[in-house]
């Protein structure tokens, strides 16, 4: 394999470096926040209906 081969890993340019752990943690955090918001809204509505 020569350096001019396009499949050479050292020549691959990572256009968007990303941190998978941060992406996953942020996703879980946002999902938890949305579910918490829904739960709070449902609780408030159920207390107002009584």
TrEMBL record:
Does Transmembrane helix count among this protein's keywords? yes
Keyword list (alphabetical) reads: Membrane, Transmembrane, Transmembrane helix
Q: Which organism is it from?
A: Paenibacillus piri
Transmembrane domains' residue ranges: 25-49
What is the protein's given name? YqzM family protein
